[in-house]
Amino acid sequence: MSDKDRYESAYENQWCPGCGNFGILGAMKDALAQLNIPPEKLLIVSGIGQAAKTPHFLKCNFLHGIHGRALSIALGAKLANHDLNILVNSGDGDCYGEGGNHFIHAARRNTDMTLLVHNNQIYGLTKGQASPTSAWGMTTAMQPGGVISEPLNGPALALTMGAGFVARGFSGNKEHLSGLIQAAVQYKGFSVIDIFQPCVTFNRVNTAQWYKDRIYELDETKDRDDFGTAMTLARETGDRIPVGILYTKEKKEFISQIKGLEKGPLIDRHYDPDRLEKVVQEYI
Amino acid sequence: MDITILIGGAAGQGIQTIGTLLSAACCKAGYFAMAVNDFESRVRGGHSFFKIRISNAPVYASRESVDLLIALDKNTWEIHSPSLRDNSVVLADEDFSSSGRIVPLAFEQLAKETGSNLFINTVAAAAGLRVLGAGPATVQSTIKDHFSGLKEDLLEKNLDAAQKGFEKVADVLFEEQPLAHPSVPKGNLISGAKAIALGAAAADCRIGAFYPMSPATSIMQHLTDLSKRLDIVVEQAEDEIAAANIVIGASFAGARAMTATSGGGFCLMTEALGLAGMTETPMVIVNAMRPGPSTGLPTRTAQGDLRFAIHASHDDFPRFVFAPGTPTQAFEQTRKAFYLSEKYQVPAIILADQYLLDSLFLLEKPFFIDKHVERFIVTDDDMPDPGGYERFAVTDSGISPRALPCKGKALVKVSSDEHRPDGHITEDIAIRNTMMEKRRAKLPAMIEELDGPETVSPDAHTLLIGWGSSAGAIKEATDLLRDQGADIGCLLFSQIWPFPATAAEKMLKNNPDTQFIAVEMNAEAQFAGILKENTNINFSGYVLKYDGRPFTAQFIVDALKEKELA
Ligand SMILES: Cc1ncc(C[n+]2csc(CCOP(=O)(O)OP(=O)(O)O)c2C)c(N)n1
Ligand code: SF4
């Protein structure tokens, strides 16, 4: 087993003390060490937000991109070099708000990569506005009368869109979360974990205690390949909230269906002027 | 000889097939040709036409007058009869007018006799071929070539339909008989869209991502066709935002990648353009201009996005902008865009337009394929200390060594936030300034990479200034006016940004009395404005057009005369 210190980044962490993101970061390092993916073989792609800063705090290759677009960038990178191990870190606003369309289509496409949604049910970096997952009725400075839309359910949406690996996690349970991340990374296809993560600064409703009072771990010995059960579990967000793998099933992976990629990553192909000359001449 | 054939009808009647057949036959017979495709944003009905110009000399724009009109419906007759000359010939389905000018052919009736009115286009094409001087053997072989992919019995029916059309025009006399006197072909017909796709392939582009939008889609269709035989993958994204970010991700990982869109889609891509600018990731975007704002005229042509392309996205960062005027330039500049985008790690935008992309032009010289494609990527072996690799290391040229993620010990760290040389976020004032200056330090060398304008009589008293695909019509207008004794020339720009000031100034300052006239397909003379900002020259007049239809030389000549500018 490898030493997880090798994922330590010299860059100063910028999260608030006590933030739920630390639990996710710790679980990621643990999972990467368990999976033995060295920093130089890891690519993290992220959007914008507190969650999206994750790769700076972990030793790896990264592209910290723009709000909501991480999944598109990750797809491009994977098309170019499908040997890449790609983790995507996104916030609930980043992924389900600005990036909602890409999330839907990433689930349909089923490209082999893992998406970790740091779900604090609030916008952190922009200082406490409601996010798509904020509870109905939650008041903020920008929603003084309370949120009047239904919260978006990421796992349920991913399931409807055909995702083959859908899980819920809790940053306060690092060991369990590490296990989920390992299973997600090993899944051949698009895997998504919606991770509850208390924002100690802005979210006064969904506190660590609030989550602890509701969360229960799913029985890991059970097969989770039944869509109906998965949907029921995904929608259980009231007094009791299950964490663990809600659904996992083998599905056709995206890259493996592209004929042109059967011969290996595109970036490893050599420029072939003779073939090109011939194709160009015939094509004109 | 310089004749124009116009085939018109409703969308879905096979006008393009007839046009392609006739232009291919004339090309094969050794003539120069060019064709424009004019259609509405609908799949059936309406009015579309295909206009072919055939000449003994090279042609790059179409003409207003029509010598042979093939009218598949009455609408075509009504719209285009004013363009006919006294001895023009009109082939039509029935006699739509009482003028007696129409040769009624009953296209539909003849097609039905063959089995289906789907054969209308074959009947009409064969009639057109004969009127242009083709004998029975030429007609047969042209039809066979065109329909070579069809099943035996369908091919037979097409030949049968052709025979019917051929017989019907035995008595029609057309003054020019180009197909009766064939010589060696001058080249192949090619559209700008095909040329751009081939240019991308020649630049070793590996990934194309797109979201459909006219008139850019045909570029991606060609790239998709090429992907069956080359190491290219094309992905249809969920929107233009995704398409542009896929390109950035692919490029970051090491593959040359592109997208093509039109103004509306380019609006959505401006965010990604900024990301490419900030992260210094190469990317190539084709903006196939059509009239706007907003959805505008979807199937028409324009040159209205120049200012937008130059300034798109927020704050300052360097980029290349090209505006090819011909398929040859489209091919070469696409190749150059990939090369320069990678060399300087900046985005490159190619401004094309519906006219360039959908028209057919004669390609005289074959495209040049490089024996070797130069890449600008470093590996661990190029570094004394891969562990200390910094993606944004400060250099005199502003260009930092670019390594690829997960290809060695060097960690590649990239952030869209302002960053330190190692790629981590910073708000440090000095580093911010250094990084801004580092990115901008590339500009002087970038400018030197660009060629100045193509010229015709640059020492003339009056100089027409144009850019992009208007070049053909402007050159022809210049020739026409010179033949009439005017002291006129033109400067035609196609490598536009960063503005090639050194190359341009040499030509602009020749004579202090020179009168400059801007000829552009937009309402505000956008290029003229850019030229003024960068060179201090003043314009004495403008010929502007924004109705969505391309320039013809005659239009430019008439406008200049009306304004007493030539
Ligand atoms: C295009 C764009 N719009 C808005 C923003 C401002 N912005 C930065 S982070 C953020 C929301 C982040 O919320 P979330 O994804 O939930 O992440 P968190 O900060 O809570 O981890 C927003 C709206 C931006 N950077 N870019
Ligand atoms: S604002 Fe909230 S989510 Fe962001 S770092 Fe602070 S506690 Fe964490």
Automatic annotation (TrEMBL), chain A:
Residue ranges the record marks as coiled coil: none
Keyword Metal-binding: yes
UniProt keyword annotations, A-Z: Iron, Iron-sulfur, Magnesium, Metal-binding, Oxidoreductase, Thiamine pyrophosphate
Gene Ontology biological process: cellular respiration; small molecule metabolic process
Keyword Mitochondrion included in the entry's annotation: no
Entry's Gene Ontology molecular function annotations: iron-sulfur cluster binding; metal ion binding; oxidoreductase activity, acting on the aldehyde or oxo group of donors, iron-sulfur protein as acceptor; thiamine pyrophosphate binding
Domain Pyruvate ferredoxin oxidoreductase beta subunit C-terminal: from-to ranges: 199-262
InterPro entries: 2-oxoacid:Fd_oxidoreductase (IPR051457), OFOB (IPR011896), PFO_beta_C (IPR032686), THDP-binding (IPR029061), TPP_enzyme_TPP-bd (IPR011766)
Highest taxon in the source lineage: Bacteria
Reported cofactor(s): [4Fe-4S] cluster; thiamine diphosphate; Mg(2+)
CDD domains from the UniProt entry: TPP_OGFOR
Residues annotated as domain Thiamine pyrophosphate enzyme TPP-binding: 52-195
PANTHER family listed in its UniProt record: 2-OXOGLUTARATE OXIDOREDUCTASE SUBUNIT KORB, 2-OXOGLUTARATE OXIDOREDUCTASE SUBUNIT KORB-RELATED
UniProt cross-references to NCBIfam families, sorted A to Z: PorB_KorB
Record-given protein name: 2-oxoacid ferredoxin oxidoreductase
Lineage, broadest ranks: Bacteria, Pseudomonadati, Thermodesulfobacteriota, Desulfobacteria, Desulfobacterales
Automatic annotation (TrEMBL), chain B:
Keyword Oxidoreductase: yes
Entry keyword Oxidoreductase: yes
Domain Pyruvate flavodoxin/ferredoxin oxidoreductase pyrimidine binding: residue ranges: 199-436
Keywords, comma-separated and alphabetical: Oxidoreductase
Superkingdom of this protein's organism: Bacteria
Residue ranges constituting the Pyruvate/ketoisovalerate oxidoreductase catalytic domain according to the UniProt record: 11-167
Domain Pyruvate:ferredoxin oxidoreductase core: 460-539
Matches recorded under CDD domains: TPP_PYR_PFOR_IOR-alpha_like (cd07034)
InterPro entries: 2-oxoacid/accept_OxRdtase_asu, PFOR_II, Pyruvate:ferred/Flavod_OxRd, Pyrv/ketoisovalerate_OxRed_cat, Pyrv_Fd/Flavodoxin_OxRdtase_N, Pyrv_flavodox_OxRed_cen, THDP-binding, Transketo_C/PFOR_II
Coiled-coil segments: none
GO biological process, one term: response to oxidative stress
GO molecular function: oxidoreductase activity, acting on the aldehyde or oxo group of donors
Pfam families named in the record: PFOR_II, POR, POR_N
Protein name from the UniProt record: 2-oxoacid:acceptor oxidoreductase subunit alpha
